[in-house]
Every structure is written in C-alpha cells, then in structure tokens.
Specification:
Layout lengths: L3 H10 L4 H19 L3 H16 L2 H8 L1 E9 L2 E6 L3 E6 L13 E7 L2 E6 L1 H4 L12 E7 L2 E7 L1 E9 L13 H4 L1 E4 L5 E3 L1 H6 L5 H6 L1
Parallel strand pairs: 2-10, 5-7
Antiparallel strand pairs: 1-2, 1-8, 3-6, 4-5, 6-7, 9-10
C-alpha cells in the first residue's frame, strides 16, 4: 500500500494544466500563421498570377474572338486595312520590273530573296485617283495557300485590332469592283479589304492573264 501512494501523488502532480495548453496552442497557431504569411516578393508573385488569370478569363477570350487584327496602310490618301492573317511581310518597293502583256493593275514583278512576286497596284485595280507615289513605297505581301503577291501601299500605318461589330457595310460611294473585295468600313473610315477574296480571284493571277 505504501508503495502505491507515491504513484497516486505523481498522478495528481501530472494533472492536465489546461491554461498552459491553451497558451501553447495559441503560440503554435501564431507561429504557423507567421510562417505561412507571404513575403513582399511572394505577394507580388501572387498578385501577378491573379492578374494573368483574370486576363485569361473566358470573357476576354470571347472579346478577342470577336475582333480581327489588321495591318493599316494609306493608298491614294485613303485608309485601308487587311487582316494580318494573310500578311506575310512588308518590305520597301525596289527593283521593280514591268511586265508586258499584263493587266494595267499589275505594276510589275520583284525579286524577293530569290522569289519572284507580282505587285498589284490597287489604285488601278479599284479605279482610285492616280496620285503621285512617294519615294518610300511599301509592298504588303499577301499569302494564302499557293497564292502569293504583293499590293502597293503609300505608307504603312501599323497594326491594330478592330471589333467585328464596328465593321459596317460599305458606303454607297464604294460601288463597283471595289465593293466586291470589301469586308466593310470602320467608324474612322478605314476601308477593310477582304484579302481572302483578293487572293482567291483568278483575275489577279498573272499567269492566267498572260496565257489568255
């Protein structure tokens, strides 16, 4: 019996101190929260990831799907645009060789790094005013499948996106052959050409014109 009493006293001394345990739990929780709190660099990374996630929301994707990217240029003092989807490159007009027995709108051919391309003068093709050409003319190379040719531009204005909803039907003044190759016109009076129809038109194929 006497041997069991110390054990009983030891059990009493080992009684749970709930107040101390609460203190330890609170301290552990505070340390854990501090350990998981992001630093300045991590906070910036999280915010950047959130911004990228917001930019990739379905609504933004739908907005891009409802617009087209175009290359804008000046021609005969009018603003034109073609979808960049069909634009292979832009380069200065140089070393132009005229071709006999071709339609008037075929300005000639150029040697572009070993590739012979015909250059179309849309002013004549669309019956636009024949204004004087500046010294720094540009050629926009259009490509679709096996069809490749260049169109003449006075000045390249740049690349931008145009909402499809902004492209309105062509104006009554844009009639005849020009209307056939138009997607429409924007509120700022940029004429959006249908490059796909231009590239698919057999009347522009120089070989067939020469063969006829």
């Amino acid at each position: 019996m006497s041997a069991r009493k110390p054990a009983s006293n030891k059990t009493q001394r080992a009684a749970i101190d709930w107040a101390e345990i609460h203190v330890r739990l609170n301290a552990t929780q505070a340390a854990g929260e501090q350990a998981w709190a992001p630093g300045a660099d991590q906070t910036k990374r999280i915010l950047r990831e959130r911004a990228l996630a917001l930019a990739a929301e379905p609504g933004e994707t739908q907005t891009l799907d409802q617009s087209i990217e175009v290359v804008e240029f000046l021609l005969a003092h009018e603003r034109y645009a073609v979808e960049s989807l069909h634009v292979r490159e832009v380069y200065p007009l140089e070393n132009l060789t005229p071709l006999p027995c071709t339609p008037a709108f075929v300005l000639g051919i150029v040697n572009l790094r070993g590739e012979i391309l015909s250059v179309i003068d849309l002013r004549k093709f669309f019956d636009l005013p024949q204004t004087g050409l500046p010294d720094l003319n540009k050629v926009i190379v259009l490509e679709s499948g096996n069809m490749v040719f260049g169109i003449l531009a006075d000045v390249i204005l740049g690349v931008r996106r145009i909402a499809l909803a902004e492209i309105q039907p062509s104006l009554p003044t844009l009639t005849g052959i020009r209307e056939k190759y138009l997607k429409g016109i924007t509120p700022d009076r940029t004429v959006v050409l249908d490059a796909g129809k231009l590239l698919a038109d057999e009347d522009i194929v120089v070989q067939e014109q020469m063969g006829g």
